[in-house]
Every structure is written in C-alpha cells, then in structure tokens.
Amino acid sequence: MRFTLKMSHAEILACIWLALEKAPTVSAAVANIIVTNFAFVPATTNISVNDQVIWTWPVGANEHNVTSTSAPQAWPASATLNGPATFTNTFTTAGSFPYECTVHLFTGSITVGQASTGLVVSITSPVSGTVFAAPATVTLDASASGGAVTNVDFFTNGVLAGASTTAPYALSLNNVEAGTYALTAVAAAAGVSATSAVVNISVIAYAASPGTPPGREFNRQGNILIADQFNNRVIEATRNGEIVWSFGLGPDDFSANSIIGVNDAQRVGPLTLMAGTGTPSGVISQATNGAMDNRVLLVDSFGRPIWQYGQFSQSGSGPNLLSVPVQCTFLPTYHILITDQGNNRIIEVTLNKDIVWQYPGSNTNAADQLNSPNSAELLPNGNILIADELNNRAIEVTRGDVIAKSFTAGGTVSGVAFACRVADGNTLLTDSGHARAVEVDANDKVAWEYFTTNSPHSIAAPLPSRAIRLHDGDTLISDQFNNRVIRVNKHKHIVADFGFPLAGGAGLIGNNVGYNTNTTQKGLYAPYDAKIVGDYTGLTPPIDENEDGYNQ
Fold first, then answer.
1. SS3 528
2. Could you give the CA distance from residue 134 to residue 71 in angstroms, rounded to a whole number?
3. Exposure winner among 105, 254, 341, 504, fewest CB in 10 A?
C-alpha cells in the first residue's frame, strides 16, 4: 500500500486554515468573564434568564474562586482554581447576583433580566489556536448585532486593550511580546452589554532566522525529513545529504527558537508537524540537567509556527499541556494524534485544541494500560497501532478502547519504539533494545529482521528508534545512538546512509556526532525519526483528497 499526497500546497493550506476557523462558537446565551489580575473582567455583566456565564482563569491566574454572596447563595462556590480553568453557572431566575473571590476579596455582579436583549458579539479574527511570532502585530476584528451598538471594548487577559466605536469593529495590537493571551470583546448598546467567547492565542519568540527558507529543492518527493534529536532541529535533505530546509538552531540552543530533543517530524503538504520531546538529564553534555520542550508544532515553509499544542517548558496533563510528547500524526480529519509519553496516553486533538479521543480512555483494565508509549498510527480499518515501549509490545486498539491485537515477535522484543502496518497485513516493529527492525505476520511470527549492530564499528546499544517500510520495499531506520539514518533493502544491504561513518564508542552515544548546516554527511546527533517526503507506505497519510479515509 502506498499513500500519496496529491492535493496542491495551496489547497492543503486553505483546508487547514478552514479547519482552524471551524472552532465552536458560543451563542448569545453565554457570557464570558476573565478571572485575572485580582479582578473579574468585566466586573458587571448583564444577561437574561436561562443564560449561562463562563468564568475563565487564563494561564498565570492563581488561587481565585467565584463565590456567590447572595443570601441564600445563588450557586455553589467554585473551587479555588489556577489557570487554565473554567467555571460555569446557568441563571434561571431574574435578579442581581453579587459575588467575590473569597481569597483576595475582589468582587463582581451579574444582573439577570427577564428578556434577552438580543445583543451578540464575537471575535471573528484571529481564531483560537493561532500562533504569532514576537514581536507580533495582532489585529482584532469583532462583529456585534442585536442593538444600537455604541462601542466594542477589546480585552487581553482581562485588561482593556482598546475600543472601537464604529463598525467594522477592529483594534490593532502592536509589538505584542511572547506569551499566551485570552482575548475577549464586550459590546455595549442602550445600557446593556454582551461578552464574546474567549479566543486564545499564543505569541512565540524565536530568532529572525529559526530555519532555512525554502529553496527549489524544498518538499521534493524522495527527499528525506530527519528529526535530528540532540541538534534540536528538523532538517530536509536531498538523496545525497544536501540540507535544503531546517527548523531549529543547533545543539547549544535550548530556547523556544528550536525544537528541543525532537523525536518526530512529518510533512503535511508544505507544512511540517514536529514533536518537541525535550532532552532527558544525564544524556548529553550540552544539557546535563535536561531541557524541557513539551510542544507539538506545525510550522510553515519559512519556519513560522501556525499551530501549537502544549506550552514551552511546561509539563502537565490539563488543557493544552503535554509531558514528553514523542510522536505526532496528522490525520485526514485534520486532527492530530499525539503520543504523550510522560502521561502514558495517546490523545487525538482538534485544531481548536479539544481532546476528542484518548487511550486508555475508558479502559481501566490494569493489563491494558500503557507504559511509556512511543508512537501511534491510524490504520486503514480505523484502529490505532500503538508502540507500547516499556510494556515490550505493539498493540492495535479500537476506538472503543479495546485491545484487538498485540505484537511482541513471539515475546522476543525489548522496548518497542515504533510500529507500522506494512504489506500483506504484516507489522514492522522497531525493537530498540535489541537494535533490530523486525517484521511479524498476523500471527506474530517473525517474517524478516535486521540488526543495526551488524555494521562494523557500531556501538553496543544504539537503540534504533524508527524503522519505516518504504514503497520500494526498502526499510528506513533511524539508528539513534549510532548517529545515522540508513536505508536497507530486503536483502539486508545498506543502500544509503546519512551521517558521519560509524566510529565506535564506549559511551551511550557513538563517537561520530556532528552538526553541519549544509549536509547530513558531516554529522547528525542521535536522529530519532526519518521519513521520505511523499512516501506514506504503512504510515498515516495526512490529507485525504477523496474523503474516504485514505489515499491508496
């Protein structure tokens, strides 16, 4: 089976932006209040009977609660929360309802009228999830209807940023610094007001040239895309190793300008999806104490992030948080499948950052839990193939969170770093602990295998991290701590290699480490993943032009 990407780059970009803009909108029956900077913003809110109020704690808002001071209380008090978080209450009776944060004693009030004013306001641009480069210029556009609107106020993280008094309502924010921002708009008309749904954006600081601008060879079918792990970069190279595109600034850069300890990269049309796994402590001299990243990024051909899930150098399992993301797969539905290793879960996330499926999910059986999962791929039958690394198995799970099949090469694998479905229904496992790529049939019997330690001057435990079957039957192996990527034919001969020649080594990582911005042949640094541009054999194709689930 070969999956090919036939949509034009312009079509792919347009589809992704359309998907981003399909974020759920909130009706006029919802009012939004930001809890931040020791204030409720807006402090006074006017709604109608049966309307709902959502209080939102943005990132950085700490130790606040929402407690009714009416007698009796109009609603059960919220917990004392830290951002990001929300609290919701629906008002079923008219009246005036004061409230406060009992921790810091700032106050607000809700006035509930009998009839809806019909006033509606929404932020139309940007959409939630948009990522800008610092210093950013962000233009806020809003629409308001349902009354004689006198003005629309715009707020960033609960602070008034400016106002517009005439339609179309807009405000330009200049020189916006790096950070996460919750945007709201408040429209006023004839003594009543309405608040928009919250729009969350991120502004990322990165160097003026975080990557190599695309040239004529960019995204050419047959090129190789490499997650060059400890060089903190993703690179695209030609068949002879000439680097034609890169994102990241090298082995000594541990800022958000790079993709730290990158474990996975995938080309999505002209875009590149990548997982910032981070660097564990005690592995490399450049970061003896380790370095976190914890982002999944989608960047354009100029290295500009257009979407991000997870927060740089923050770890967690809450909304928009990850812990050691090791792999990310763009699905034909425009969702992203993320292997969130530190949280022992696989999550499916929309471009609006909603989690719509996860494993183990509803499955609480102890034997079915994950232990350091390392990859997840969508199969043609709709199931998910997971490399359950420290459980020494690959498992095929249904969308109902049931394990349908398990693969262990007859119980011989040690540390399954990757798994993909190949021809005839066989499964290719990356048996990292044994430095082996091993193909098994439907009955888990070994059909083919290759050991990377068979090469002269290999280190004892190179821990290969990816073995991917290609359209012509070759196998592309990321031979991690041997600092090379090799292409092996079915006769087990190396037909292409990327990186310095092997030079042995008694330590964890071989002696052939290198970094060069022009060619792969002057060194890689523990490459974790490699794929051939345009060849999705056995992998999840990112775009489905026929809307039937797969391009075959």
1. strand
2. 48
3. 105
Looking at the fold, whether 259 and 183 belong to one and the same domain comes out as no
Phi, psi angles (nearest 5°) of residue 480: -40, -70
| Assigned token pair, 498 | 């990327």
Q: Which two tokens stand for residue 306?
A: 């257009």
40 within 8 A of 54, measured Cβ to Cβ: no
End-to-end CA distance of the chain: 6
Q: Tell me the backbone φ, ψ of residue 94, rounded to 5 degrees.
A: -75, 155
Alpha helices in 433-481 (DSSP H): none
Q: What is the 3-state secondary structure (H, E, C) of 340-369?
A: EHHHCEEEEECCCCCEEEEECCCCCCHHHC
* Distances 215 to 144, 206, 225, 345 between C-alpha atoms, Å: 44, 21, 15, 38
Residue 355 and residue 396 in one domain:
yes
Q: Which of 158, 151, 164, 146 has its CA nearest to residue 184?
A: 158
Taking the C-alpha atoms of residue 7 and residue 540, their distance in angstroms, rounded to an integer, is 16
Domain count, the chain: 2
Q: Three-class SS of residue 186?
A: strand
The answer for residues whose C-beta is within 8 angstroms of residue 83's C-beta and 6 or more apart is 35, 36, 57, 58, 59, 60, 61, 62
* Coil/strand/helix, residue 433: helix
Find where tokens 């640094």 sit: 525
Phi, psi of 14, rounded to the nearest 5 degrees: -60, -40
Q: Please indicate, yes or no, whether residues 136 and 248 belong to a single structural domain of this protein.
A: no
414, 432 contact by CB (below 8 A): yes
Residue 243 and residue 146 share a domain:
no
CATH of the domain at 302: 2.120.10.30
3-state helix, strand, coil in the chain (%, to 5): 10, 45, 50
How would you list the strands of the sheet with 295-299, edge to edge?
262-268, 271-276, 295-299, 305-309
Tens of pLDDT, residue by residue over 352-399, are 888 999 999 999 999 999 999 999 999 999 999 999 999 999 999 999
Question: For residue 76, what are the domain limits?
Answer: 17-204
The DSSP call for residue 270 is T
Give residue 244's identity as a one-letter amino acid code: V
> What is the per-residue pLDDT for 114?
66
Residue 543 lies in a domain: no
**Nearest 5°: CA angle at 357, between 278 and 375?**
40
pLDDT digits (tens, 9 = 90+) for 65-115: 999 999 899 999 999 988 888 899 998 888 899 999 999 899 999 988 765
What is d(CA 47, CA 164) in angstroms, rounded to the nearest whole number?
22
HSE-up of 310 (CA within 13 Å, CB side)?
33
Last residue of a domain, which of 136, 171, 204? 204
Record the tokens describing residue 108, joined without a space: 């607000």
